[in-house]
Amino acid sequence: MKKIIVLFFILTISVFATIINEEASQKLIDSDIPIVDIRTPGEWKETGLLKRSIPIMLFDEKGNYDLKVFLDKLNKAVDTKKPFAIICRTGSRTKLLASFLSNKLNYDVINIKSGIVYANFLRLPIVRYK
After folding, report:
1. Which among 53, 74, 77 is positioned nearest to 65, based on CA atoms?
2. What CATH number is given to the structural domain containing 109?
3. Left, alpha or beta for 52 (phi > 0: left; psi -120 to 50: alpha)?
4. Within the chain, how many helices (H) and strands (E) appear?
5. Domain that holds residue 64
6. Which of 29, 48, 57, 86 is deepest in the core (most CB within 10 A)?
7. Is residue 62 part of a domain?
8. Closest CA to 127 of 73, 20, 47
9. Is 1 among the domain residues?
10. Around Cβ 40, how many Cβ atoms within 10 Å?
11. In what order do the strands lie in the sheet with 109-112?
């Protein structure tokens, strides 16, 4: 009976993914948690990228997206079995994406709530996009 309970507990933990909503911070930048910037190349050029972030565009300038291409790039860039963070301009796009990644793919996601706008306001380290 103990083995069944332990097995059930292990399976339950692996089935439920989490979404953590938090602001950009130096602590997050200094951590080992990958940060994926889902904005467009034009946005990256305009504001730069949060230090250590990985640029992987989700929506293009017209709002179109190719989820398969995005997920292929995401899975090559980060270990999606471990928590990772996502950032956009203000947190609107990442809020939707975090929900999808967590609920449909069981990824543990950190949604950077107020995006690069707030990171710039906090004067966190930003690097130029080339």
Report:
1. 74
2. 3.40.250.10
3. left
4. 6, 7
5. 18-127
6. 86
7. yes
8. 47
9. no
10. 18
11. 19-22, 109-112, 84-87, 35-37, 53-55
